[in-house]
Amino acid sequence: MEPLEAQEAFHLWPSMAPVVYVPHTEDEYERIVALLDQLIDEVGEEESHPLASLMEILGVLVGAYEAEHVPEL
């Protein structure tokens, strides 16, 4: 990461941290799933939507939590 990108990340992260985080508890997981559901409703399958990458990131975080904490059927 270029120094300027790091500076921008340091500046922006405090406002994003409550939204983008690795869920460690059931409550955190449920909050991310609720946000992901809202994004799915908004973004749909429009890959060019400005929030599409956020939706993808939250999907990865949800998937990782489920792989670790939700038993397979």
Notes on the protein architecture:
- The chain is mostly helical.
- It has one domain (21-73).
- It has 3 helices and no strands.
- It has helices at 3-16, 26-43, 52-69.
- The protein is globular, with a radius of gyration of 14 Å.
- The termini are far apart.
- 4% of the residues are buried.
- The mean pLDDT is 93.
List keywords for this structure.
3 helices, 73 residues, mainly alpha, globular
Give the integer mean of the pLDDT values.
Answer: 93
Task: Report the uncertain regions.
Answer: none
Count structural domains: 1
How much of the sequence lies in strands comes to under 5%
| Overall strand count | 0
Helix content: 55-70%
Oligomer: single chain
Largest sheet: none
How do you describe this structure in short?
The protein has helices at residues 3-16, 26-43, 52-69. With 73 residues, it is mainly alpha-helical.
Give the secondary structure arrangement, pairings included:
Layout: H1 3-16, H2 26-43, H3 52-69
Helix pairs in contact: 2-3
